[in-house]
Design brief:
Largest sheet of chain A: 6 strands, mixed
Oligomer: heterodimer
Strand content of chain B: over 45%
CATH topology of chain B: Immunoglobulin-like
Radius of gyration of chain A: 13 Å
Distance between the termini of chain B: 37 Å
Structural class of chain A: mainly beta
Structural class of chain B: mainly beta
Number of helices of chain B: 0
Number of helices of chain A: 0
CATH superfamily of chain B: Immunoglobulins
Number of strands of chain B: 11
Shape of chain B: globular
Number of domains of chain A: 1
Largest sheet of chain B: 7 strands, mixed
Helix content of chain B: under 10%
CATH class of chain A: Mainly Beta
């Protein structure tokens, strides 16, 4: 069974600064997907960034980038130039093939003006 | 395109009562998921449908929870009788599923928040 661990229940960052959220996972599979989802308060969960395990290049989406270390089973999210709208719960998630997402427990990110 | 629709957004019931949640996925999405998100935790899969068939319901408490997707489109999740520990947000999500259009991404609705008193 796959597991996803987020060891930082809460993080805070000054507006315009950079923050990194950590995630580790455990799987015996070699081809899978990893995701970071954002869940603002009382709003729906949306995809932030996606990484395919067979790709060595780290995914980037504007101010969001990941550091994917397959051997270490680590998948961290870096948010650059943090904005007030980035405040939310961030969930790391794993998916194998066409199967369900397995989520971590989440990291609550606070942006300090 | 329209997103995943869920109703009701909020529901308060007494323990031992019943409740039903409805979900309409994104048009054309073959796979539909129901997740339970307890406060302070990550979402946990309750059931996964591929069209109108169940792919995974291993974590569904079948003595009190049931779900159906009769025509392979919208779905209903029912809890009967409810317990205090069922207080949670019930998230519905959909994806392209078993097709070459599948990117592994799930699209979520806004959720239905259940409070059991």
């Amino acid at each position: 069974a796959q597991t996803v661990t987020q060891s930082q229940p809460e993080m805070s960052v000054q507006e315009a600064e950079t923050v990194t959220l950590s995630c580790t996972y455990d799987t015996s599979e070699s081809d899978y997907y990893l995701f970071w989802y954002k869940q603002p308060p009382s709003r729906q969960m949306i995809l932030v960034i996606r990484q395919e395990a067979y790709k060595q290049q780290n995914a980037t989406e504007n101010r969001f980038s990941v550091n994917f270390q397959k051997a270490a089973k680590s998948f961290s999210l870096k948010i650059s130039d943090s904005q007030l709208g980035d405040a939310a719960m961030y969930f790391c998630a794993f998916s194998f093939g066409n199967e369900k997402l397995t989520f971590g427990t989440g990291t609550r990110l606070t942006i300090i003006p | 395109e329209a997103g995943v629709a869920q109703s009701p957004r909020y529901k308060i019931i007494e323990k031992r009562q019943s409740v039903a949640f409805w979900c309409n996925p994104i048009s054309g999405h073959a796979t539909l998921y129901w997740y339970q998100q307890i406060l302070g935790q990550g979402p946990k899969l309750l059931i996964q449908f591929q069209n109108n068939g169940v792919v995974d319901d291993s974590q569904l408490p079948k003595d009190r929870f049931s779900a159906e997707r009769l025509k392979g489109v919208d779905s209903t999740l029912k809890i009967q009788p409810a317990k205090l520990e069922d207080s949670a947000v019930y998230l519905c999500a959909s994806s392209h599923g078993w097709s070459n259009r599948n990117t592994g991404e799930l699209f979520f609705g806004e959720g239905s928040r259940l409070t059991v008193l």
